[in-house]
Write a structure and sequence with these properties.
The complex is a heterodimer of chains A (448) and B (349). Chain A has 448 residues and is mainly alpha-helical. Helix content of chain A is 71%, strand content 6%. The chains are: A mainly alpha (448), B mainly alpha (349).
Chain lengths: 448, 349
């Protein structure tokens, strides 16, 4: 394994691990704030119990997200010093603001988690709202950096290839910024919301504390379902933007080799880089031209328009894209189903078919998010900054990178397993009718 | 007056913010690591009470404290990108190990607080939390020592010389470039100093936070023990310090002398049970040590070649950075004050 590949795997693992916790850190605070708000409005103590239990889960997941995010900020220098030297002055601004937003989030999460009995109810709810808002702001700012890597603007190129006359504010408004931010935020709410809905649907199916879990399910489904229904629209906006700004990425995710008018849409199939063709795909005539440009006769650029050295690993990108779209569509359909039931004013929490579907799609959001990041990151290769700097030129000269890669892999596997076990026991606690009883009892002291 | 304006341009202001961030991190996050040390060494009849006080004291605030480190890193790579690139390259190994320590410390503390119910797993997470709290400050200190000694800068020039040669691989000089700069007596002494200082800080804070006299006595004794270790590591650091240049002269020397005075005052206050004074003096001492180091190597970010101005990002970046941080300070400072006030009143009950 080359050092470059080891560095890429380590970065991919770190991002892939962090993104799950980042999504939860964005969306979970919204869910717990909604539960607390319902408690304040209705005086129904089960909502208070729900907010507390969601907060407990958030505490564990946020801590893992915070430390894995720290790892990422260091890894920028540990693995990609060339990139940081090149782009640091330009992309530092959103990172700095993200630091401020994340700081705010950490402060008020501390207030929220430990302040149940120490501050006024309204102040406590306000702290939760600040956590939810600053979490979303952090996500926006970090995605702005990635958008810049995809569509770099805000500078002039010097003769030696360095960036001059830089404009950090213009760099934050790169062409890909809006659609990437929209897509990521919706992904966070859809993934987390439907995952939480799936957990509570599972508990209802098992007959555990139905009152408690029904209230949880309604809130999670409202947030996750709405985002899941909106996500395909955001995906369409993204695809059209990629078609214009990063045509080779679009060609890779669609497995399109020849530049052509009226390009077909390939469903499934395996892009073969040797033979430069995508085999065994189901082709829908004019589909790609329609999707990418909303015009059946539009010309779509193919992979062969650039030399092989400038093409991303097509098979990975194409397959990841299919996975993302398939899982996202399934989530949107289940969300529409739930919306249909709710439209007729029927109770979504007693429809066993829907509950089973919610359990089935629970992990889809996180898998689709991973696939989506593979699409945008692997799809940009061989560039770290599209068209400007190759990933190979930005990697550290440090040899033996397979060692830290394996170290972090083990680390993440261990952490992931522990988090899974802890969350399982946290959910198990709510199995009996105990939670509804304890909610009506006198408020307990805050956890130390 | 004009002299000061010439010296205090955007690069210097950014560096000032960087060091201020480091200072707060050392005083808050550093003490949280020190708390982990005392968790490991909890003993005697009040063992559980000691651990409970530590968990209670750092629980609500450690994540906010940890963010200072992220802020330092972000300011470093925004304002001084080449320095960040050099540190990430040459100090890859200690930084990676330190990161693993940070991850283990944070996650095990959260698992212990929120996840574990039975005593066995509580103790397992406690041990990991405590061991990581020892390893991380050691590495952090060693990293600072490696930078201060000039070894990182020298390794960086050796590496770039190697890269301009045809076909030469960094593998051939792995030991010289990637190990020797930090795996040496002086950086390790600074690592020990950092660990002892964090433990001292934590003991002083905990003595102040404890409610009953016996528990206060426990942390007083621990603080005095840490003070002995701190003095030993400090003397070792001074003895091993490379004396190639005029490093410790002028203001830097004054700062280090003042640090010594503050340290003695802190130990004396701890000895005579004046808890608030001890906290003030201990905080001053640790801060003065840090600023002494910074002044000693000014104007270098990474001695002996990378000066502040040479590695600074373009002016526009620095101005935006400083404005962003100033705006952020208007949100963060009242928020932090609120956080500490909410939980401090509870600790003194």
């Amino acid at each position: 394994m080359t050092d470059l590949l080891a560095a890429r795997i380590q970065m991919a693992l770190s991002l892939g691990f962090h993104i799950v916790f980042a999504e939860i850190g964005i969306a979970m605070p919204l869910l717990m704030v909604l539960a607390e708000w319902k408690w304040l409005r209705r005086g129904d103590a089960v909502y208070l119990e729900l907010a507390r239990r969601w907060a407990k889960g958030t505490a564990i997941l946020f801590a893992v997200g915070a430390v894995s995010g720290t790892v990422l900020s260091f890894e920028l220098g540990l693995l990609w010093p060339g990139f940081m030297r090149f782009a640091g002055p330009l992309i530092g601004m959103p990172f700095t603001l993200e630091g401020v937003a994340f700081f705010t989030e950490a402060i008020f999460l501390g207030v929220y988690l430990y302040g149940w009995d120490r501050i006024a109810r309204r102040a406590h709810l306000a702290a939760g709202i600040v956590v939810a808002a600053s979490g979303a702001a952090s996500a926006v700012l970090v995605v702005l950096v990635n958008a810049w890597m995809n569509t770099p603007v805000g500078f002039q190129l010097a003769a030696d290839g360095a960036l001059t006359n830089i404009d950090p504010l213009a760099a934050m408004q790169s062409p890909a910024a809006f659609e990437q931010v929209l897509h990521m935020l919706l992904a966070a709410y859809a993934s987390t919301g439907l995952a939480v809905a799936g957990v509570h649907a599972w508990m209802i199916l098992r007959g555990a504390a139905p009152g408690f879990h029904a209230r949880a399910l309604r809130i999670a489904l409202a947030v996750g379902g709405t985002a899941a229904v909106l996500q395909p629209i955001s995906g369409d906006i993204s695809a059209r933007a990629v078609a214009v700004a990063q045509p080779i990425k679009l060609a890779a995710l669609e497995g399109l080799w020849e530049t052509q008018r009226g390009a077909p849409l390939s469903l499934g199939g395996w892009p073969d880089a040797e033979r430069e063709e995508t085999r065994w795909a189901l082709q829908i005539p004019y589909g790609l031209s329609l999707l990418a440009f909303h015009d059946p006769h539009a010309e779509v650029q193919g992979l062969k328009s650039v030399p092989p050295a400038d093409r991303p690993p097509v098979a990975i990108v194409h397959v990841a894209f299919q996975i993302m779209v398939a899982l996202g569509s399934a989530m949107a359909l289940v969300a529409l189903w739930a919306g249909w039931i709710a439209l007729w004013r029927r109770d979504v929490t007693v429809q066993r078919g829907l509950l089973r579907a919610l359990v089935a799609v629970a992990p889809f959001g996180f898998i689709a998010t991973e696939a989506g990041w593979v699409v945008t990151e692997v799809g940009r290769q061989p560039w770290v900054v599209h068209g400007l700097m190759r990933t190979a030129d930005s990697v550290t000269p440090m040899p033996g990178l397979i060692v830290p890669m394996l170290l972090f892999t083990l680390h993440y596997l261990g952490l992931g397993a522990i988090v899974a076990v802890l969350l399982r026991s946290l959910v198990r606690e709510t199995e009996g009718p105990r939670v509804e009883r304890s909610a009506t009892a006198a408020p307990e002291r805050g956890t130390p | 007056m004009t002299d000061w304006l010439a010296v205090l341009g955007p690069p210097e202001l950014a560096a000032l913010v960087l060091v201020l961030g480091m200072n707060v991190y050392v005083l808050t996050g550093g003490a949280d690591f020190g708390g982990g040390v005392w968790d490991l060494f909890a003993s005697g009849p009040r063992r559980d009470a000691q651990r409970a006080l530590i968990a209670h004291s750092i629980g609500p605030i450690w994540e906010a404290n940890h963010v200072w480190l992220i802020l330092v890193i972000v300011v470093l790579f925004t304002a001084f990108p080449p320095a960040f690139a050099t540190l990430g390259t040459i100090l890859h190994i200690p930084l990676t190990l330190m990161l693993l320590g940070i991850v283990l410390r944070g996650s095990s503390f959260a698992f212990r607080s929120y996840g574990a119910h039975d005593r066995a797993s509580q103790e397992r997470w406690g041990r990991i939390f405590a061991s990581a709290s020892i390893v991380t400050p050691l590495l952090l200190g060693a990293i600072v020592g490696a930078i201060a000694s000039g070894a990182v800068g020298e390794a960086a020039s050796a590496l770039s010389a190697l890269q301009t040669e045809d076909g030469a691989s960094p593998r051939s000089m792995f030991q010289t470039i990637f190990l020797a700069p930090w795996l040496a007596p002086f950086p390790l002494a600074i690592g020990a100093l950092a660990l002892a200082m964090f433990a001292f800080l934590a003991a002083v804070y905990l003595a102040l936070a404890a409610r009953d006299e016996a528990l206060r006595g426990d942390f007083r004794r621990r603080g005095l023990g840490a003070a002995v270790a701190m003095i030993a590591a400090g003397v070792a650091g001074l003895a091993l310090a490379p004396r190639s240049d005029a490093g410790f002269a002028g203001p830097a020397l004054v700062f280090e002398l003042l640090a010594g005075v503050a340290g003695i005052a802190a130990i004396r206050a701890l000895w005579t049970r004046r808890w608030s004074l001890a906290r003030l003096a201990a905080g001053a001492q640790v801060s003065l040590v840090l600023w002494g180091w910074v002044l000693a190597q000014y104007p270098f970010v990474i001695p002996p070649a990378q000066t502040l101005r040479a590695v600074a990002a373009p002016r526009v970046t620095l101005v935006f950075l400083l404005c962003g941080l100033l705006g952020g300070a208007f949100i963060l400072i009242p928020s932090l004050a609120y956080l500490y006030r909410t939980f401090a009143s509870d600790q003194r009950r």
